[in-house]
């Protein structure tokens, strides 16, 4: 077959963005977008402009704060389902960092197991006595990691899962140093600082959809359930709002 005929046949094989592999190297010039597939299969030429870009997200969770408020609002056996909440964030972007700050005490063993199952990396906080109480404050460690990941060029959003108003300083610092990075708070409405709630779109309340309850020895999501249970849970939540 003449060279011109080979080239013409190869061009005829390139129909509607599909190229037969046996004709790929006959085209002049070769397409830089071609992908090597097994012989005899058709391939589609991908177009970079059609790729959907999702922002890189770093999630930092203040477990002591969230668990305390969750129990106060929904009862002692209630627990935040961190996996469900993380899944909702993954739908909005590419979660590159998911780090949970957990007090290193026996009472958090079940929570730590749950967090690991959900894919979180744990930063265990050694508790200390302060004003006669045992505390494991995540402020310093979580603030340091928030600034660390806000400075990373692959991160466009930092999510702070806490209602602690002390983290507003971290929010302000990141906004000033890296204005292109957004900072979002997620927390239960009860127990969240008023100034965090005033951020509006940069504060996302955690509602009952992400809470599970111990029922007959099994963990079950509070929502959805029967209308009677829904009303009961919502009334309990209202009692703890302030």
List the helices and strands and how they pair.
Elements: H1 3-13, E1 18-19, H2 21-24, E2 43-44, E3 56-62, H3 63-74, E4 79-80, H4 82-90, E5 94-103, H5 109-117, E6 121-125, E7 128-130, E8 133-135, H6 139-150, E9 157-161, H7 168-177, E10 182-187, H8 194-197, E11 203-205, E12 211-215, E13 218-221, H9 227-239
Describe this structure as you would to a colleague.
By secondary structure, the protein is an alpha/beta fold. It contains nine helices and 13 strands. The chain has helices at 3-13, 21-24, 63-74, 82-90, 109-117, 139-150, 168-177, 194-197, 227-239, and strands spanning 18-19, 43-44, 56-62, 79-80, 94-103, 121-125, 128-130, 133-135, 157-161, 182-187, 203-205, 211-215, 218-221. The strands form four sheets. Strands 6-5-3-9-10-11 form a six-stranded parallel sheet, sandwiched between helices. A three-stranded antiparallel sheet has the order 4-12-13, with helices on one face. The protein starts with a helix and ends with a helix. Mean pLDDT is 77; it is low at 9-20, 29-51 and 225-242.
